[in-house]
């Protein structure tokens, strides 16, 4: 049972209605997470703007989706695991094995695996990474700007994980459950 109600497009007003109409136009639907965020247009608009800005960064959509899965697993967010597994497979064309491995911070590409390891380290250490952690990600070939983007992707995904875990958002994608750790 959800704890926060999803706002339906027909019931939305003002800025939330405008944002829903834009999302509907782009995606053909408004995912339940965004409907629930729409109860506060500030939350929804902040999420959309942050997500849009990061989408223009240097990491690329594959690495971004894999980071999202690593962070969602670390935070046991079934909604985000479900959404990013679907998006990763259907929209970004990531193979199923890579999607599964990302949840454990693994990848066949050492550079991507370094990003996933760093993302999981950020979550596990509440952002208080060591000099060695930062040197490892930079030695894997990431610039200072790219390291900043990894941190930002983790922050965005922590937001959505915490939001969905609080709301118990109804999953509107094929369901993927967090592995017990």
TrEMBL record:
<feature type="domain" description="Carboxymuconolactone decarboxylase-like">
    <location>
        <begin position="43"/>
        <end position="84"/>
    </location>
</feature>
<dbReference type="Pfam" id="PF02627">
    <property type="entry name" value="CMD"/>
</dbReference>
<dbReference type="InterPro" id="IPR029032">
    <property type="entry name" value="AhpD-like"/>
</dbReference>
<dbReference type="GO" id="GO:0051920">
    <property type="term" value="F:peroxiredoxin activity"/>
</dbReference>
<dbReference type="InterPro" id="IPR004675">
    <property type="entry name" value="AhpD_core"/>
</dbReference>
<dbReference type="InterPro" id="IPR003779">
    <property type="entry name" value="CMD-like"/>
</dbReference>
<keyword id="KW-0575">Peroxidase</keyword>
<keyword id="KW-0560">Oxidoreductase</keyword>
<protein>
    <submittedName>
        <fullName>Peroxidase</fullName>
    </submittedName>
</protein>
């Amino acid at each position: 049972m959800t704890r926060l109600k999803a706002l339906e497009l027909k019931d939305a007003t003002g800025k939330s209605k405008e944002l829903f109409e834009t999302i509907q136009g782009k995606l053909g639907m408004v995912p339940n997470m965004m409907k629930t965020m729409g109860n506060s247009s500030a939350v929804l608009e902040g999420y959309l703007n942050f997500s849009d800005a990061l989408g223009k960064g240097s990491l690329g959509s594959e690495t971004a989706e894999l980071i999202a899965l690593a962070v969602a697993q670390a935070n046991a967010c079934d909604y985000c695991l479900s959404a990013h597994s679907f998006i990763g497979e259907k929209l970004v064309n990531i193979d199923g094995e890579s999607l599964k491995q990302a949840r454990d911070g693994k990848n066949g590409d050492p550079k991507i695996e370094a990003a996933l390891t760093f993302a999981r380290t950020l979550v596990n250490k509440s952002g208080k990474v060591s000099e060695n952690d930062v040197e490892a990600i930079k030695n894997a070939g990431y610039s200072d700007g790219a390291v900043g983007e990894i941190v930002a992707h983790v922050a965005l995904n922590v937001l959505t994980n915490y939001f969905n875990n609080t709301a118990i958002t109804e999953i509107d994608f094929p369901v993927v459950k967090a592995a017990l750790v």
